[in-house]
Fold this sequence. Notes:
Order of helices and strands: HHHHHEEHEHEHEEHHEHEE
Radius of gyration: 21 Å
Strand content: 15-25%
CATH topology of the largest domain: Rossmann fold
CATH superfamily of the largest domain: Vaccinia Virus protein VP39
Number of helices: 11
Distance between the termini: 63 Å
Number of domains: 2
Largest sheet: 7 strands, mixed
Amino acid sequence: MNFGSPDCVERQARMQAALRTLPDKPEETPESALRALWCRAAGLQLSVQSAQEQAPPPLDAAGLARLDALISRRLAGEPLAYLLERQRFMGMDLLARPCALIPRRETEMLGEAARDLLLEAATVVDQPCCIDVCCGSGNLALAMAGAVTSARVHGADLSAQALDLARENASLLGLDARLCWHEGDLLAPFEGPVWAAGVDVLISAPPYISSARLESMPHEIIGFEPAMAFDGGAFGVGILMRLLRQAPALLRPGGWLCVEVGLGQGGSMLQLARRDRRYDQVRAVLDAQGNERVLLARRAVEPQGG
């Protein structure tokens, strides 16, 4: 791929003029998207980042026709990750398909915070237990399993298709023997005495968009990604509140609940957690703009009532 060649110049100009990217996918630019689509047209399945790291192969006339079709689909709003069938998350190149949400940078913030807490747990527990609910493509669960080799990691989702994708990602990364997958609604797969007070880190990037806002979301999101992964109910916080209420029964004393929250939701969720005496530490992780995007709440080490 020669960015000065006629084959490339016209297509690059088209991308520059027509591509509209979303702020939650900063890795995509007209140039990086074109390079990644070029690789895809050549038969390579690479994330945007991986495509920038190698020289794209030459394309014949049939390959250029495939490239033009991919460009047209991208400019019509189809997410780049779905066209590439790959998305990078916390250094891992994962399979990406429309049955599951595309992992985003704010979820990496959640993953980084949860990983650090799981690493801390591994210094005091031989086999710390980590659960990821609303796991989607398995990105968070896989990041935990990759970072903490002694951990017992479980992922759960309501979507059987998403779980199939998570299993494929685990196999792709060679981690399939280190994870267990469960189908069910939120924490339902973990009911019963086997799980009670035995979880060191409970993670979730749940749906948190209010139902009324879904229709106003960009077409690139709501037109292609699964609505179930976004719809947080009438006010957007219903699932977040369920997690705050139900998590203490699963968490070990000193165990952590780690959840991603939507813009503008952090303050109220932090207040709710701080009023619940079953948690003795509550803090937030802020994004670059100072917004609270991750809530961390520790199960009280000493019973406090409430």
